[in-house]
Amino acid sequence: MGAKIKGAGTDIIEIQGVKNLKDVSYNIMPDRIETGTFLCMAAMTGGEILVKEAKPDHITPVLNKLEETGCKLKVENNEIQLQAPKRLKAVDIKTMPYPGFPTDMQSIFSTTLTLAKGTSMIVENLFENRYKYTQELIRMGAKISIEGKTAVIKGVRKLYGANVKATDLRGGAALVMAGMAAKGDTRVENIEYILRGYEGFDRKLKGLGVDIRVL
Question: What is the extent of the structural domain holding 129?
Fold first, then answer.
């Protein structure tokens, strides 16, 4: 567009003003966290999904961990196909700055692991108080213990529907995912958190066969 900017990838960005900027055409990149969310939903519910118009190289750590859980992945250009095993395997995760495992996938992946065989350990290295959602999962039958920045998740066979509350965007999406896999009905309150981060969330889930309603 004609801007004068330097310092990309460093601690300091320098911008020198110009008189005019020119028109350009730009395609916004796909949301890597939304991609990871739908892949984890399929993994947790034992299903199969094809995510189109994705950027697989943006979520390499997530794809690697999904493979560790036993999921079969087929990645071609901008498409990711996932087939879940009968039961997921436990894995350990540490959140890191990009290109490491994204902190915004922590609650999503942790929820997936509540039904995995074995014990998983999650270490949140970037933000404090990001385990609030776990108390709601415990009410659904999950076995999770928190100590500092570490969460220990002991996989269970089933989760059970309950009335739960979203306290943030990703934690709210995680509770919807838990409700998809749980026995019985789940009601998630405070969905304004979720809807601000996922466009057409309920519509896309209905397209995947989920029985979901926004009230």
Answer: 29-196
